[in-house]
């Protein structure tokens, strides 16, 4: 019977690839936009802008403190009541972007605060303005602490994207749920799903490890 | 601690504010469907025979085919929006879909929130077990050392609790085949689910691995659902079912999908 | 969905929600403890001088991080029985969460340990402290300070991940919300209450970690 199921699974493999493509598309788009939002928010937060900083706290707390499923639900089903009707795909990308943005904001603001304040002060003394200090002094150093967890966050993003299948985005997890109806060998089907995620995530993990090795920093460790 | 309470307060205020913003729009959904030329149906992919993705990757099943027929009679296209169970009701209530078509039991509690059509089929919860186990009667199953697999929130769950109060109930999520899996893997001794679902889904398992006990626990109406205010659409669907019952298309569908395994050959 | 938000029915289901919250709390508590143990062991293995041990720990960490929890849960629940090991649902769930989170914990703890500069360890060696003494008195107290924020982050992720256990019939907070959705067709009520209760857990964890961090700073002036 195992062999029979396996043959069936091979037969459905093209759908899995389609699902994988959807997973990559949704998480790829959110990755790009989430990074932009996350960096902007992280810099604002680390710069301790008065009101905006407080608002960012609320945003980050909400995203980190509630289940992602609920966030997807609000964006897809509740926003229409306030006039924003989104397609499943755009809703999924929006939800994932906001979610990833919050985590990236944490990572970025953490990385910036880890740069010794003396650096920024010295730059100030040489007459650099805020933007120049950020761009040429603080961020390049902060990147060393930011990059490894950032790539780690991308891996989580890819895996978290599986939640959007609840609103009918046919990603690789959803294909798995469809298939398990026909090939009721849950272990085999979700083994394949796991393998496909692995194919996407593993290179990212290796990249994170490499970055960590290369960028290992030791501030003031002289 | 004050900071946390403050922030929770902000959330509460935000929630209240946003609740106030929502405006209920009143329009005849059926007119809207005809206007836009598309019937939007929320479905679930819970497995044969009602709604599933067949081996060619095409969405089909008894409910799905009924909806296609409905759209044909309306002279519009049909669009299936596929959700998880969790997304099904929200999709209907948030107007993403005009109609919810699943093998959903029209319980009285649920009917407080949506309008159900006239039942299109009656099914009942049955008990199944791994072939060769010594379960024959209700009494056999109603024992403390018996574990029963059911689907979360299903009527099978309610029936199992009613008929086997002594047994241990495990509620799974994710579809009927999972229950059969759980029974075969030994996580549960027996399973309780709709007869239509069990019969359809056990076909995918090794032959003679599952046995349905000759006990039918209940008789339940399956129905489609629309938003409570959509009486026009509701009446239209009821009329539709009267028509197809008269002209044989109803029997054709049910005989092919539900009462036999003819669909297995092509799907 | 919101204009008919029903607080009265919600009140009827409140005991169920509280029961679910309690279940989520103790399930995640146990898994968190398990994850810390697994994480410490895996981190020890990863940093070990024995190549084999280090490679094994590395493989475990990477395999877990690059596959979804769903696939891991399925493997333990439906896969192990075919190898002759059948664990009950709660144990399976706690095991899966511990193993999953343990891999992330291992990385966090490792980053903490590596953040202690080599000079400190050399100084401790010069004092004649042995490996365990160095770990106990020099490395770990400093490493802990650095690791608390990411550990908190991981703890929160774990709490939310525990929602997946409802797939294998474990009752917890997310499931309470699903019950009100399926019995009464009240998704908004179910989802928002679930989100609020998760948010409460989140703030409790956050308060605890900032209290702990403050205490640590008092204990050892860093």
Write the layout of secondary structure elements.
The complex is a heterotrimer of chains A (222), B (267) and C (222).
Chain A: H1 2-11, H2 13-46, H3 50-65, H4 68-78, H5 88-114, H6 117-125, H7 130-160, H8 172-182, H9 186-215
Helix pairs in contact in A: 2-3, 2-5, 2-8, 3-5, 4-5, 5-7, 6-7, 7-9, 8-9
Chain B: H1 2-21, H2 29-36, E1 38-44, E2 52-53, E3 59-60, H3 62-74, E4 77-83, H4 85-93, E5 99-100, E6 115-116, E7 121-123, E8 125-130, H5 138-141, E9 147-151, H6 155-163, E10 168-172, H7 176-185, E11 190-194, H8 195-202, E12 210-216, E13 220-222, E14 225-226, H9 231-247, H10 249-257, H11 263-266
Parallel strand pairs in B: 1-4, 1-5, 9-10, 9-11
Antiparallel strand pairs in B: 2-3, 6-14, 7-13, 8-11, 8-12
Chain C: H1 7-47, H2 51-65, H3 69-79, H4 89-115, H5 118-126, H6 131-161, H7 173-184, H8 187-219
Helix pairs in contact in C: 1-2, 1-4, 1-7, 1-8, 2-4, 3-4, 4-6, 5-6, 6-8, 7-8
InterPro entries (chain B): Solute-binding_3/MltF_N (IPR001638)
Organism (chain B): Desulfacinum hydrothermale DSM 13146
Signal peptide (chain B): 1-27
Describe this structure in words.
Chain C: Its main location: membrane. Chain C: One of its GO terms (cellular component) is ATP-binding cassette (ABC) transporter complex. Chain C: Pfam families: BPD_transp_1. Chain C: Part of the binding-protein-dependent transport system for glutamine; probably responsible for the translocation of the substrate across the membrane. The complex is a heterotrimer of chains A (222), B (267) and C (222). Chain A has helices spanning 2-11, 13-46, 50-65, 68-78, 88-114, 117-125, 130-160, 172-182, 186-215. Chain A starts with a helix and ends in a 7-residue tail after the last helix. Chain A has a single domain (2-214), classed as MetI-like (MetI-like fold, Orthogonal Bundle), CATH 1.10.3720. Chain A contains nine helices and no strands. The longest helix of chain B has 20 residues, at 2-21. In chain B, the strands form five sheets. In chain B, strands 10-9-11-8-12 form a five-stranded mixed beta sheet. The termini of chain B are far apart. The mean pLDDT of chain B is 87. Chain B has helices at residues 2-21, 29-36, 62-74, 85-93, 138-141, 155-163, 176-185, 195-202, 231-247, 249-257, 263-266, and strands at 38-44, 52-53, 59-60, 77-83, 99-100, 115-116, 121-123, 125-130, 147-151, 168-172, 190-194, 210-216, 220-222, 225-226. Chain B is globular, with a radius of gyration of 21 Å. Chain C is mostly helical and 222 residues long. Chain C has one domain (7-213): MetI-like fold (Orthogonal Bundle), CATH 1.10.3720.10. Helix content of chain C is 81%, strand content 0%. Chain C has helices at 7-47, 51-65, 69-79, 89-115, 118-126, 131-161, 173-184, 187-219. Chain C is flat. At the A-C interface, helix 3, helix 4, helix 7 and helix 9 of A face helix 2, helix 3, helix 6 and helix 8 of C.
């Amino acid at each position: 019977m195992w062999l029979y199921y396996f043959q069936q699974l091979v037969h459905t493999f093209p759908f899995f690839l389609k699902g994988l493509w959807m997973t990559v598309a949704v998480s790829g788009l959110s990755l790009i936009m989430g990074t932009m939002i996350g960096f902007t928010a992280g810099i604002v937060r680390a710069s301790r802008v008065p009101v905006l900083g407080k608002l960012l706290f609320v945003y980050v707390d909400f995203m980190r403190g509630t289940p992602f499923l609920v966030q997807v639900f609000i964006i897809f089903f509740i926003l229409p009541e306030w006039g924003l009707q989104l397609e499943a795909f755009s809703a999924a990308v929006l939800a994932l972007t906001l979610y990833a943005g919050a985590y990236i904001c944490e990572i970025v603001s953490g990385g910036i605060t880890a740069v010794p304040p003396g650096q920024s002060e010295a730059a100030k003394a040489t007459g650099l303005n805020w933007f120049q200090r950020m761009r040429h002094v603080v961020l390049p150093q902060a990147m060393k602490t930011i990059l490894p967890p950032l790539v780690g966050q991308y891996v989580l993003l890819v895996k978290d994207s599986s939640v959007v299948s609840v609103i009918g985005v046919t990603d690789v997890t959803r294909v798995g749920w469809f298939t398990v109806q026909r090939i009721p060998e849950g272990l085999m089907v979700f083994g394949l799903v796991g393998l496909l995620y692995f194919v996407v995530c593993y290179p990212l993990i290796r990249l994170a490890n490499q970055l960590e090795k290369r960028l290992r920093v030791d501030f003031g460790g002289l | 601690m004050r900071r946390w309470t403050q922030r929770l307060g902000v959330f509460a205020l935000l929630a209240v504010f946003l609740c106030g913003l929502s405006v209920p729009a009143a329009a005849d959904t059926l007119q809207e469907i005809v206007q836009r030329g598309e019937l939007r149906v929320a479905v679930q992919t819970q497995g044969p025979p009602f709604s599933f993705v067949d081996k060619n990757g095409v969405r089909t099943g008894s409910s799905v085919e009924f909806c296609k027929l409905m759209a044909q009679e309306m002279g519009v296209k049909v669009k299936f929006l596929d959700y998880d169970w969790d997304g099904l009701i929200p999709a209907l209530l948030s107007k993403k879909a005009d109609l919810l078509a699943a093998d959903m039991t029209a319980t009285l509690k649920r009917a407080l929130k949506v309008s159900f059509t006239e039942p299109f089929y009656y099914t009942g919860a049955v008990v199944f077990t791994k072939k060769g186990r010594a379960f024959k009667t209700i009494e056999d199953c109603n024992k403390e050392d018996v574990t029963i697999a059911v689907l979360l929130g299903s009527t099978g769950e309610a029936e199992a609790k009613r008929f086997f109060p002594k047994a241990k109930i495990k509620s799974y999520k994710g579809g009927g085949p999972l229950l059969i899996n759980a029974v075969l893997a030994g996580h549960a001794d027996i399973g309780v689910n709709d007869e239509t679902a069990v019969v359809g889904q056990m076909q995918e398992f090794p032959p003679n691995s599952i046995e349905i006990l000759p006990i039918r626990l209940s008789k339940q109406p399956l129905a489609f659902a629309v938003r409570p205010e959509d009486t026009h659409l509701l009446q239209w669907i009821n009329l539709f079912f009267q028509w197809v019952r008269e002209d044989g298309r109803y029997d054709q569908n049910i005989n092919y999908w539900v009462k036999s395994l003819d669909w297995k050959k092509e799907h | 969905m919101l204009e008919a938000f029903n607080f009265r029915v919600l009140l009827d289901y409140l005991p169920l929600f509280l029961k679910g919250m309690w279940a989520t709390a103790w399930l995640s508590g146990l898994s968190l403890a398990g994850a810390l143990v697994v994480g410490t062991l895996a981190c020890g293995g990863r940093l070990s001088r024995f190549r084999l041990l280090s490679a094994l720990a590395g493989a475990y960490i990477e395999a877990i991080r690059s596959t979804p929890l769903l696939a891991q849960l399925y493997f333990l629940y439906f896969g192990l029985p075919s190898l002759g090991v059948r664990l009950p649902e709660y144990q399976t769930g706690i095991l899966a969460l511990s193993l999953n989170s343990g891999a992330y914990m291992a990385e966090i703890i490792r980053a903490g340990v590596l953040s202690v500069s080599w000079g400190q360890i050399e100084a401790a060696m010069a004092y004649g402290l042995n490996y365990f003494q160095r770990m106990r008195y020099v490395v770990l107290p400093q490493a802990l300070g650095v690791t608390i924020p990411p550990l908190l982050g991981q703890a929160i992720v774990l709490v939310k991940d525990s929602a997946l256990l409802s797939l294998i019939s474990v009752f917890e907070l997310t499931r309470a919300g699903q019950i009100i959705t399926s019995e009464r067709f009240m998704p908004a009520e179910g989802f928002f209450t679930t989100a609020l209760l998760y948010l409460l857990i989140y703030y409790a964890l956050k308060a605890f970690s900032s209290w702990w961090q403050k205490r640590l700073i008092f204990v050892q002036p860093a």
